[in-house]
Design brief:
By secondary structure, the chain is an alpha+beta fold. Helices cover 26% and strands 10% of the residues. The chain has helices spanning 5-27, 43-47; strands spanning 82-85, 88-94. Strands 1-2 form a two-stranded antiparallel sheet. The longest helix has 23 residues, at 5-27. It is elongated.
Length: 106
């Protein structure tokens, strides 16, 4: 059996790529179109007083002008009606929505 550096290099790179692929795919942001909309009746949504319309919020910690679009946890595209949120990773939230975990976007 003879030593072939090109084959060894290929095998090393292929193994590294195979090991890194799941991590790379996991770090990609979820697209809002792929995620179902968060229902206000969802258990997690209820726990954080989520609503799809911040204009109707009557929560003690609500600050005027706060909504999902200007929250640090919201990762939706600017101008999109719905987008992913780090607090609700399996759902998209309304950009005009609000929840009690709202934190000013840095």
């Amino acid at each position: 059996m003879s030593f072939d550096p090109s084959r060894r290099r290929f095998m090393t790179v292929a193994a590294a790529a195979a090991a890194a692929a799941p991590l790379a795919l996991r770090s990609l942001p979820a697209q809002a179109a792929d995620l179902p909309k968060l229902a206000p009746t969802d258990t997690a949504a209820k726990a954080l007083a989520y609503t799809e319309n911040a204009a109707t919020v009557k929560h003690p910690s609500f600050k005027a002008g706060s909504d999902c679009a200007n929250c640090n946890f919201y990762k939706g595209a600017k101008g999109a009606a719905y987008g992913p949120c780090q607090l609700f990773p399996k759902n998209s939230v309304a950009a005009k929505g609000w929840c009690s975990a709202w934190a000013k976007k840095a």
